[in-house]
Amino acid sequence: MTTDVSIALTDAEQGSSLWHDAWIRLSKNKMAVGGGAILLTFIVVALLTPWIAPYSYEAQNLDLGASPPSAAHWLGTDIFGRDVLTQIMYGGRVSLAVGFIATGVALIIGVSWGAVAGYVGGRVDAVMMRLVDILYALPFMIFIVLLMVVFGRNVLLLFLAIGAVEWLTMARIMRSQVQSLRQQEFVEAAVSLGLSPVTIIRRHVVPNALGPIIVYTTLTIPSVMLLEAFLSFLGLGIQPPQTSWGLLISYGAETMEEYPWLLIFPGLALTITLFSLNFLGDGLRDALDVRGSKD
Amino acid sequence: MLHTFLECRLRSLLFTSLILLITACGRGESNVVQGNRDGVLHYGNGAEPQGLDPHVVTGVPENHIIRALFEGLAVKNPQTVEPEPGVAERWEFSDGGRVITFFLNPDAKWSNGEQVTASDYVWSWNRALHPGTGNEYSYMLFPVVNAEAYLKGEITDFNEVGVKAIDDTTLEVTLNAPTPYFVQLMDHYSTFAVHPETLMQFGEMTDRYTPWTRVGNIVSNGAFTLSEWSLNRRIVVEKSEHYWDRDKVSLNSVIFYPTENVVSEERMFRVEQLHYTQVVPLDKIPAYRSMPDTPYVQAPYLGTYYYLINTKRPPVDDARVRKALSMAVDRETLVRTVLQETAVPAYSITPPDTLGYFPPKLFDYDPEQARKLLAEAGYPNGDGWPGLEILYNTQEAHRKIAVAIQQMWKKELNIDVTLSNQEWKVYLDSVTQIDFQIARRGWIGDYVDANNFLDLFITDGGNNNTHYSDPVYDDLILYRAPKAETREARYELFAEAETRLMEEMPIIPIYTYTSKHLIHPSVEGLYSNLMDSLNLKYVQLVPGRQLQGSTQ
Amino acid sequence: MLRFMLIRILQALPVIFVVITATFFLVRSAPGGPFDQEKVVIPEVKKALEAQYKLDLPLHEQYFAYLSDLAQGDLGPSFKYPGRSVNEILFSGLPVTAELGLYALLIALCIGVSAGVFASLRPNTAQDYVPMSLAMIGICMPSFLLGPLLVLVFGIWLDWLPITGWGDIPGDKILPSITLGSAYAAYIARLSRAGMLEILSQDYIRTARAKGLPEWQVVTRHALRGGLIPVIAFLGPAFAGLLAGSFVVETIFQIPGLGRFYVQAAFNRDYTMILGTTVFLSTLIVFFNLVSDITAAWLNPRLRAQFKGGSQ
Q: What is the mean pLDDT of residues C149-167?
């Protein structure tokens, strides 16, 4: 948010009240506020999990096996007799971390890359976007397998690897946004005023391209979480007994006829998170809609 | 381009066509009903075969199809697993069991009508053993005199190898030593004959990748011939007109499906798209078991699931620690809970009743003794435990077992164990390099004989992977047992060797495998046996029988 | 315009070359080889196998040999499936995966664009929330969950549709296409809603409305073109994703497509197969990105003017 603040401070043209206005608009949007609150709760629970989880993470009860929800186990147990609620709480730590960190990585690389390529254009754009094409066309499965093998499996590396793959689409979207923004009168005016490109990108281009970027970000977080599940499922991600929502869901999907609660509860956790993210993202987009606020 | 009203049209069009499709097809007759009428067996085969060349491929799905297309000199009786006549109508032992003479059935024909001759076998075994072919199962023929030397390029004249065609129907094989299980090996595809003229038509004898196995090209000698091979879709074989025992063959055709996804395979069986499944997902088993006239069939299988121990890495370089770990594994509970009674607890490497051989049982689940041993080794109540890692290849089934064992060791011995999974080829690399402390391993027998399990652990054996080395053990397995006069004497030597092995405990045996299939009630003659080896010529379909609880 | 396309195609060639080179050396540096098995292979046999596949040559010689074969359109023999060439395997799987991808993309576009546009017309009302919530559920549903769920409901409980196969039983293409397409439908819905909202607040739309054009004409004639630019930009990558993502769907529904080979080749260390699918997929991806760029340019009036100017 530091860049936002700096934009707010330096942006004489649009007035320093922009971010304040946006905040006010956001806080009026009940869905967005609700989403934000739920998200915040989940994050707090994830952080506190080691202290508040009802059962020990590893405790098995092989003789109990998979049991439906009961007073002792509110959300039931899995085939090892482990408490599902505890698993979901621990899984949330991994899933939320993957979602936010990997998306953050993707966001930083993708937005700067796309903005520069789209703004500068010409040969620089061609070279930068060909690089994106090369990375797109790389067999990403092998890329991750190699990374995991050469550097050993490591959660942080996994986050970075996923982020390194996800930034590509972000860069393309940013570039196409910037390309169309560049043609707009207010950017042309800024250019003719002799402002430096960095200033123009920061002051005019990025804030105006924020809408689609925020929307794409709220789309990237779930896809990153699912990508992590897919990789873990192939054995290239999270190491058991660590778990994640995606992994819990993929196991649950296999036994949905026998033990539906193993699918439903992790599924609900993921769905609620993604919905909250989505409403928050929409709210942010609407709140930051600069042109919409100009009338 | 994308006008909304146009889209609405497109959408409604799509929707109506969807509805039309659904109502029009209405799911018609199931594969099973149709197959029962036409004598077509719908067989879930587990995976797309690598190929159908008996001297090139390795693997179970390949085995099923190749054994439908080809026949060995002797085949396994599907009920007793003892050899019975195949291409050879009889065989005789001479020179104290060192020479076997196979008398070929003059009616045994290739699918083009030509006779299967003894010289076809000499040619084929030359191919199977030729260093240029790269046959990964060439060691199946190593009991034959000079076979190993020929493969390793120490001799280059195949005439020196102990196999001779006396005449068209007489094949004489000379062995290094009496080998009781040799006739059994004649049912393994690496010892099958191929049709020399057909192969030569498409390339050299040792070529791996000629199209001779394709539909229209392949000439085989089994009960069925190849009629369709659609990559990753299906393989269809049809009853052969030239097979010598064709009157016994009841099926007109078998369709093999590459059912890679076990969950999908089970669902295909449920909607009667398959007569037979290769496996059954663990979680579905209780429901099938409780069905009246259950289609679920489970039988002991010649394979052991165990953990390899690197006997040179602390803390498991101490036999007391290894024993403590092994004794603290509650195999009964593991089998009952995690494995849903689909396995048999194992306390040694050889599966019980391997052609009458029972392995010694030296220990039992004994946490008390385990704690004592661990204390003796310097870790009383887990104090000072340096940590231990279990390596397994990435698969849910292995993970479940590792998680349960990790927990048992924590509970009984108060030691911390971490789990590590590796992708298959990386895992193989680690196991071959013996770069692990404890690693999951499974061994499936190639033939029914304890030797196939016990010779794993000879010094520097390719599949030893534990650094276990005992000259007395080597002597027992390599020299004394082959020279034993009787089966009993031989089994006693095996038991002696196996006792020595389990006293050192370079492996932690966990369970003996079972084969698990769903078989539609209309199928007769699919017997279960220790090798999970079926002979399709005995299979019959009885129309009219229905799956309980089926939708049709 | 023609020059633009030509330049882009020429630029693509070195891209594909770099991809081939990088993949070749990446794949060879992974531990484990194509002939490693659970039962250890006799060293002499392994040597013979490596000689048959030229793996005994120095790596750079193998690389140049591969390039020269590739130049002649030969992707080499498969390691995992002896007796089959990579070309043959690819061309047996391609029509199936392409058909599956096409149906999935069509479903995704039809549902996604209509839902997104529909929602954008009345933002923050039920007309917005309902389709968008459905889209969100689509995103939350990975194909390894949606596939089995659809099979269970439509294949087993209702017994309406076949649960496996491709082109074997009438109707067996429906469930896999929906499974693969649904996640993309959800993405497209979100992107087109966002894009439309962006455009609908533009001055020229207000002008069009002020001129008294009926709303549906405002949308179809003016707004859609600009509003769908993000969707078009997404389609190139989406198609690539569909091809790679078809792995799960192909496995669940036992479809004889490419995706299964692509993923399994990596696990099998089937070097030629990995390279073959990579070359093939990278060509496709580069091509589709090109198409998506051209379409986006065509849809954007200002950029279009620029291209026209450039080509004169």
A: 85
Comparing B341 with C267, the larger pLDDT belongs to: B341
pLDDT at B515 over 60: yes
Does residue B181 carry a pLDDT above 80? yes
**CATH 3.40.50.2300 assigned to C88-311:** no
B452: closest chain C residue by CA: C39
Interface probe, candidates A82, A142, A254, A259, chain B, greatest B C-beta count within 10 A: A254
- Local confidence band at C309 (pLDDT 50, 70, 90 cut-offs): very low
3-state secondary structure of B275: coil
Binding-face residues of C in 26-85 toward B, CB within 8 A? 30-33, 35-42, 44-46, 48-49, 51-52, 77, 80-84
C245: CB partners within 8 A, 6+ apart:
C143, C180, C183, C259
End-to-end CA distance of chain B: give it in Å, rounded: 47
Q: How far apart are the first and last CA of chain A?
A: 26
Contacts of B25 in chain C (CB under 8 A): 169-171
Q: What average pLDDT does the segment C39-59 reach?
A: 84
Q: Which CATH number fits domain A41-288: 1.10.3720.10, 3.30.420.10, 3.40.1180.10, 1.10.3980.10?
A: 1.10.3720.10
Q: Which residue of C has its CA nearest to A288?
A: C198
CB contact under 8 A, C286 and A133: yes
Asked if pLDDT for residue A123 goes beyond 50, the answer is yes
Is A152 within 8 Å of chain B by CB?
no
Interface contact C145, partner B, CB < 8 A: no
Nearest alpha-carbon partner for B324 in B385, B244, B263: B385
Q: What is the DSSP string of B507-519?
A: EEEEEEEEEEEEB
Q: Which of B260, B113, B507 is closest to C260 using CA atoms? A: B260
**Cα angle A181-A183-A189, degrees, rounded to a multiple of 5:** 95
Q: How far is B206 from chain C (nearest CA, A)?
A: 10
Q: What is the pLDDT of residue B429?
A: 87
Peptide bond into B315 cis (omega under 30): yes
CA B442, B445, B449, B453 dihedral sign is: negative
Report yes or no: B175 and B143 within 8 Å, Cβ to Cβ.
yes
Residue B275 is predicted with a pLDDT of 94
- DSSP letter string, B303-362: EEEEEEE-TTSTTTTSHHHHHHHHHT--HHHHHHTTTTT-SEE-SSSSPTTBTTB-----
Please tell me the distance from the alpha carbon of residue A232 to that of residue A11, in angstroms, as a whole number: 45
B134 → closest Cβ in C49, C151, C162: C49
**CB-nearest partner of C19 from A137, A169, A271:** A137
Beta strands B388-393 and B438-444: pairing type? parallel
Predicted local confidence at residue C192, as pLDDT: 85
The DSSP bridge pattern shows strands B417-422 and B388-393 to be parallel
Average of per-residue pLDDT values in chain C: 80
Q: Where are chain A's structural domains?
A: 41-288
